[in-house]
Amino acid sequence: MRNCYYLLLILIFLSCHNQEKVFVKEPWMEKQTSQWPNFALTNTIKFTDTIYQNIANSFLIDTGYDTIAVTCKHFFMVFKNNNLNTIDLGKDFKSWTMYPKGQIEKSVQINKLINKNNSEPIGEFNTLKDRDWIIFKINSVHKDIYPLKIRTTPIRKGEIVYSVGWGHKQTSKSPSLIKMKMYQNLGNYYYILTKTENINPVGRSGSPVIDSNGYLVGIVSGAEGKLGVIGSVKYLTGLLDKYHIKYNK
How many CB atoms within 10 Å of residue 13? Predict the structure, then answer.
């Protein structure tokens, strides 16, 4: 009788273990995009002699324990004009502000770059696509900025996901919602097919990529021919582990 009891417990455990994790859909996903919270952000970065305004995209992440800020690492290629050669903001850095485009009063103030690396040269896109994430500690965040929650399971082939952000010449306050289909999983990044038509990809780097439940699954990194490239959350969670940042798994 006791053996039957233990066997039943083992079967229950295995059944629960093999069940796919069920995500509760973010309630705002059922609303029109104009009613979504502010989670897509742009950037203004100040150095001693240079200001970069409304450049690329960024966002916040709710780890379940803290809030951090994120954008794409290849962004640093712009900073070569400031004599920066590695993934470090350098001695002339003054401030980094993230905010919804056209609403700088709703800002996030960056504290420091967490994964800086004086040994990593600022590379070209093709050398960065498998590690195209930089993460920041923040000093302050406006109450209207919404941090995204992480989905740690990979995107499935054929799954529909969405990037939310602005292109280089896009002046509207509302970010674009771009529908994409996962084409190939390369581990730390994905190739995707863009389903939304007439979209100029220039300047959309750093945009968050969310699934149909509103969870973060990637970051817009670039494009190769007809395929888009998005960085996978797999690399992000590896960074969080490396820097001992707790997150919901």
Answer: 10
